[in-house]
């Protein structure tokens, strides 16, 4: 393919404005996929994406399009819209020269429309505004055109008005891609430089790296070297994504595709790495800023015998999602596990769901926290040292001075949602590290009949401890099933109890319906009850369903 006939572009938008639907129509129009009623979010491959109706992972597809006798290769990269996943957006943009900025004709410009526009603008990409959902009864495309002109300084006549759902006017989007987005500036005669912008793990074929070629050519059989690790590999397969992998003999500069080169260890395919020919090593391409985790949670196997399975599942999944950081950790109550860092709460939930769905792993997640830095006065040194060994974040003392990033703790759980509803979805929200600040913090324990629930230990501001403690106790009361005995739920700071709720005694008698029944049926029911209990965590003598923790945390 001549470089001048290649266009690399992304679709960006606020959540639900129709990126995936537009991607489906573009795939159909170019004959990449058949036109059937079932083409719903073809690029959303993950089960969690289909279930939640959100895009988590950027996908790539190469489309072939004929226009005025010329054949064009259009490389499309789908991107997620939620703020938790904006690192995926900037990563995708590094392989593009232009974006389609999709805006809902009814809702108009929203928070992520603005954030995505500026990501594209800073990367100096061509921006094509696409006003979608013009078929809606309340659609007001003229109002949205004016917004776009006012906010982004893009003349309103550059807006393309479409209905991705019905396919109306989608052809003119393809025309605009060819006319308004420049071909990539690349050099095929130079030695190879390929940017790894994403990678996935396949059980049988190992690591599949998604690459954008900036210089040269790569063919099957080439010996390549990673600029990051200096390890060499032989290329086993190269190809384009259509959107499924389709092997080709070569990939040329300007193209986007995949490459398999016998990378078996998940840590070998670093995103942002540059691949060169072994014989002609080159200066690496500018990589990506690594994503900075903002929410930390402990993750432990439900049963310690599953430690190794969970370890390999986490390793594989982090290859697909390199923004998750992993450190080994251990807890007296929960055994060996990890402390994971996520970009936000949705990111954490999605990771957890993918572990369960794609790797069949059962895990316990502890309360998410933000990073704190503890500074201890020297007279507390001995006890403090013990605490640090146990856990880097929670200190086993009341009177310690902690340095922390105050607002972050306030925003990790529900700030984004409240902000969105308060501002009718208009306010833009993004976060970055602003350094550490001094604050009066206390460690709060949640106790069930006097035993600490490790999963729910939190660090809170002194002034908020009472109200947060009370809320957690109330919520825990709602999610704990009654048991044979009374359960006292308490929030405590050190030895001081600051809130209490009680769950009254009760027993679910599974044999109630079996009077006179035969003994084997009774045994069966008792066995089933015992199996059900395996999904429970025992804290002292109290049984806690695994999802009770998540329920308590989510509405916090
Ligand atoms: P994320 O992947 O979560 O960022 O969402 P998205 O931007 O990809 O949105 P998606 O394509 O999933 O569309 C969101 C909803 O809007 C779906 O229910 C679509 O059916 C609907 N939708 C998309 N395009 C149109 C359109 O042109 N008209 C109407 N009426 N609905 C549309």
UniProtKB/TrEMBL annotation:
It is found in: Mitochondrion inner membrane. GTP binds at residues 13-20, 78-82, 132-135. InterPro entries: EF-4, EFG_III/V, EFG_V-like, EFTu-like_2, G_TR_CS, LepA_C_sf, LepA_CTD, LepA_IV. It is a peripheral membrane protein. Coiled coil: none annotated. CDD domains: EF4_II, EF4_III, LepA, lepA_C. GO terms for molecular function: GTP binding; GTPase activity; ribosome binding. It catalyses: GTP + H2O = GDP + phosphate + H(+). The keyword Plastid does not apply. Its main location: mitochondrion. Belongs to the GTP-binding elongation factor family. LepA subfamily. PANTHER family: TRANSLATION FACTOR GUF1, MITOCHONDRIAL, TRANSLATION FACTOR GUF1-RELATED. Promotes mitochondrial protein synthesis. May act as a fidelity factor of the translation reaction, by catalyzing a one-codon backward translocation of tRNAs on improperly translocated ribosomes. Binds to mitochondrial ribosomes in a GTP-dependent manner. This is GTP binding elongation factor GUF1. The gene is GUF1.
């Amino acid at each position: 393919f001549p470089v001048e006939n290649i266009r690399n572009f992304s679709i960006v938008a606020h959540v639900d404005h129709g990126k995936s639907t537009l991607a489906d129509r573009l795939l159909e129009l170019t004959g990449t996929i058949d036109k059937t009623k079932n083409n719903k979010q073809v690029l959303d491959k993950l089960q969690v994406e289909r279930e939640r109706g959100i895009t988590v992972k950027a996908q790539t597809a190469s489309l072939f399009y004929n226009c005025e006798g010329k054949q064009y290769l259009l490389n499309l990269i789908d991107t997620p819209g939620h703020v938790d996943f904006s690192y995926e957006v900037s990563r995708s943009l590094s392989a593009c020269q232009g974006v389609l900025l999709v805006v809902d004709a009814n809702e108009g410009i929203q928070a992520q429309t603005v954030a995505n526009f500026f990501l594209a603008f800073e990367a100096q990409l061509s921006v094509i505004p696409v006003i979608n959902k013009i078929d809606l009864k309340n659609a007001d495309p003229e109002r949205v055109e004016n917004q776009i002109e006012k906010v982004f300084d893009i003349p309103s006549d550059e807006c393309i008005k479409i209905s991705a759902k019905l396919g109306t006017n989608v052809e003119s989007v393809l025309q605009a891609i060819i006319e308004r987005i420049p071909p990539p500036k690349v050099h095929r005669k130079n030695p190879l430089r390929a940017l790894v912008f994403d990678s996935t793990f396949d059980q049988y074929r190992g690591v599949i790296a998604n690459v954008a070629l900036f210089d040269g050519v790569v063919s099957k059989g080439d010996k390549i070297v990673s600029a990051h690790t200096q390890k060499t590999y032989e290329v086993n397969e190269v190809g384009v994504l259509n959107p499924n992998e389709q092997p080709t003999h070569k990939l040329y500069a300007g193209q986007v595709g995949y490459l398999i080169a016998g990378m078996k260890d998940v840590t070998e395919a670093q995103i942002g790495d540059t691949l060169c020919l072994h014989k002609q090593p080159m200066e690496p391409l500018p990589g990506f800023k690594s994503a900075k985790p903002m929410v930390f949670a402990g993750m432990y196997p439900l049963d310690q015998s599953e430690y190794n399975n969970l370890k390999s599942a986490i390793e594989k999944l982090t290859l697909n999602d390199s923004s998750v950081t992993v450190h080994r950790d251990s807890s007296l109550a929960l055994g060996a596990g990890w402390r994971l860092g996520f970009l936000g709460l949705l990111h954490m939930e999605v990771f957890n769901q993918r572990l369960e769905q794609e790797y069949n792993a059962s895990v316990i997640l502890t309360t998410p926290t933000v990073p704190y830095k503890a500074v201890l006065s020297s007279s507390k040194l001995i006890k403090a040292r013990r605490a640090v060994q146990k856990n880097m974040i929670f200190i086993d003392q009341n009177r310690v001075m902690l340095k922390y990033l105050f607002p972050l703790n306030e925003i990790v759980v529900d700030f984004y949602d409240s902000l969105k509803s308060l501002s009718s979805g208009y306010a833009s929200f993004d976060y970055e590290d602003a350094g550490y600040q001094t604050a009066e913090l206390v460690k709060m324990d949640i106790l069930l009949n006097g035993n600490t629930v490790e999963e729910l230990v939190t660090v809170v501001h002194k002034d908020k401890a009472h109200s947060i403690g009370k809320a957690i106790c109330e919520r825990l009361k709602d999610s704990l099933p009654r048991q044979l005995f009374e359960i006292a739920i308490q929030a405590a700071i050190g030895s001081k109890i600051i809130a209490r709720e009680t769950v009254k005694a009760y027993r679910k008698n599974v044999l109630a319906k079996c009077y006179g029944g035969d003994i084997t049926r009774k045994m069966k029911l008792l066995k089933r009850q015992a199996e059900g209990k395996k999904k429970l965590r025992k804290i002292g003598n109290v049984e806690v369903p695994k999802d009770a923790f998540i329920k308590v945390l989510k509405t916090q």
